[in-house]
Amino acid sequence: MDGYVVPHSESFVSPTFTADRDWLHFEARYNYENQETGSLWIGYNFSGGHKLVFEVTPMMGGVFGNMTGGAPRYEVSLSHKRIVLPSSGEYVFDTKNHDGNFFYAWLQFIYSTMDWLHVGLGRSAQ
């Protein structure tokens, strides 16, 4: 769950719930694509490698609330020992307002100094 404190505006939380069973991935989010908007996702988990591990989850989703539409989405990661290079991206087709369509990609570098402590850098692109 992420929380946002917005100066001179309303602060909000953005919960995400995920469930995986073998290859099947389910996800539900709120306040992520837009405020007061939910999204539901289904995807397929792929992975390969032992020392160098590659994971991919392509998904299709529906968006509803202040924004309504459909969206393809992906999550990928490449990891080796304590280093992880994850990326995620999404294109939202807003059926209420085509000017509301958008794409984003989020790239990160994560280093795990301990099993419970992760530090990293991230960059978004739209």
Structure description:
The chain has strands at residues 2-4, 12-14, 16-21, 24-30, 37-44, 46-48, 52-65, 69-80, 83-94, 102-114, 117-125. By secondary structure, it is mainly beta. It has one domain (16-125). The model has no long low-confidence stretch (mean pLDDT 93).
Question: Overall mean pLDDT score?
Answer: 93
User: Would you count the extended β strands for me?
Assistant: 11
Overall radius of gyration: 16 Å
Instruction: State the major sheet.
Output: 9 strands, antiparallel
What class do helices, strands and sheet pairing give?
A: mainly beta
Q: Termini, distance in Å?
A: 22 Å
Q: Show unreliable segments.
A: none
Q: Strands, helices and their partners?
A:
Elements lengths: L1 E3 L7 E3 L1 E6 L2 E7 L6 E8 L1 E3 L3 E14 L3 E12 L2 E12 L7 E13 L2 E9 L1
Antiparallel strand pairs: 1-2, 3-4, 4-5, 5-7, 6-7, 7-8, 8-9, 9-10, 10-11
